[in-house]
Fold this protein.
Amino acid sequence: MSATEPGATGAGATASATAASATTASATAADVAVVVRVRRRGAGRVWVVSGGLGLAVLAAFLLTMVVGDHAIPLPDLIASLTGHGSKGVDFIVHRLRLPRAVLAVLAGVAFGLSGAIFQRVVRNPLASPDVIGVTSGASVAAVLGITVGGLSGLSLSAAALGGSVLSTAAIYALAWRRGISGYRLALIGVGVAAGLSGVVSYLMTRADIRVATEALLWLTGSLNGRGHQVGPLGLALVVLVPAALALGRTLYGLQLGDDTARGLGLNVERGRIALLLTGVALVGAATAAVGPVAFVAFVSGPIALRLTGGGRPDLLPAGLVGALVVLLSDFAAQHALGGTQLPVGVVTGVVGAPYLLWLLVVSNRTGRGG
Amino acid sequence: MEVPLRTEALELGYGDRQVVKGLTTGIPRGRITMIVGPNACGKSTLLRGLARLLSPSAGAVYLDGRSLGDTPSRQVALRLGILPQGPTAPEGITVTDLVGRGRYPHQGWFRRWTPADDAAVAAAMSATGVLDLAERSIDELSGGQRQRVWLATALAQRTPILLLDEPTTYLDVSHQVEVLDLMADLNTAEGTTVAIVLHDLNLACRYGQHLIAMKDGRIVAEGEPAEVVTEEIVREIFGMECRVIDDPVSGTPLVVPMGRHHVQPGPHVQPGHPVQPVHPVHSVQPSHPVHPGHSVQPGHPVQPPEGEPVDER
């Protein structure tokens, strides 16, 4: 706690004069009204932001559906979606664009939720799974699977998921010293990420050039031709998203630091591990489906926090921001450069990297380390 | 004397380093207990152990007769609140939101926010005088205001026992007194059992009805302030010569530290004590002799002791 005294001490003194006369047992109706008003405003803002983000996701979703080499007017799209479309439109919608857009939403929600979970549990904006080596674990496993095991499809996804779980366990174990300090976990995670990316580079240099190209595409993260991943990822999210939102309740305590959280009756270690496991499963499932799309997990939580304002730990807005980021990035990747199509990970990387630099500079300057 | 919170042969430590060494003591019900002692004597560690923030390496803490280790943490949180040292709040959190977090143990997976929670938050904020700050972000507040908000968070928990770890650190003297006044109010109005780790011996004597004096992880003395705070015990605990006089405001013991530069030869200095008055000119010369137990006459001007206030910080 800093001892800075903004020019509000006068107000403090007058407030304290009334403190002695007040009893702690009861409050007047006017006092309660103040509390109710402020609380509702905070909670209301979260709902308004979530609603707005939901609409934005819907708009972006429709945008990616109608725009393309073959533009589909909205009425035709709706007709096709409701089962009354023409054959040609049906093919484009149901075979090409719909799976890709749905996958973008699912992966975005998973990345966004996972990033926000990690950042808020560790209480450090740097501690997103794509920065602290969780996704690097998935990358090593996947590249190993592609180059050595010749894996593809669902077995490749399973390998990626297993890799992210293993690297998280390693990071947690390395950071454990009679408890978990957020700063130590973030630092060790960044170190693990660096080490694992070295392993990836080594594997790439040893691989056959065609296999290496395949692995490189996976490493960039792409939604192209991944329609078959909608089912497995959707199934995982049916379980994981409600779990994340329910477990998010413990963040109300965890946000205040371990001691205060314990004092409030929280089982800190159990709550933290349950949340982190959910976060790992989310980012692992999404990475398994579309590859380690850079920085989506990293930017979603902070953007959501900016929008909701205040220190509320709500996770839903972060998930929606993630969906929006992936949808828009994929749209840009497909259409920004005319005929040239880019993997979505290139666009998110271009957007996310400057933010990482900015965050490092700012947190160094303030000496907080995030 | 009823003792809702007690320890038995309690040992606490961090890793191999043992800090609290086999304490058997208790926090009496309905009173304000002050835990005092020099730096690193284990007083904060004892409080952390009492609040189950630290698990005992041996012995046990009993809350209402049941071992803390066997009681679900949430059940403990309904009966015992703790304000730890240097709590952290997320950036941008509003005062009302933070105080509302104190209601956490009263909620559950299926029991969410109710009007009773609003009432408890409003009462806690009104008692600590932070209702005017309801919409402010915690980052904008001064140290004193922030500490009152954290106190409100602890009060909103509505526990019959409240433990505070150095709640006056970083506060100027008026805010220190204000925080302790608030605890006294709470104790009087609701009969809340309060235990506070405090650095300032004189404020501890004034506000505490029960004192636990510690040194090196052990209890040196416990009891009423007048029994505990004597020149001998202060010397034993802090290794410092002092005079103990009556607090002119409250009649409780007032410790006047001496230090090397202000040693007054007299009956209070142990015979054969090696300390020599280096600058006798600077010695405190009270305008009238002060006797222990001497009460202040109304209208009699009180000569404040020279030099620094007795707060050791």
User: Anything to note?
Assistant: The radius of gyration of chain A is 23 Å. Chain A touches chain B through 56 residues (CB under 8 Å). Residues 24 and 150 of chain A are 69 Å apart (CA to CA). The longest helix of chain A spans residues 29-66.
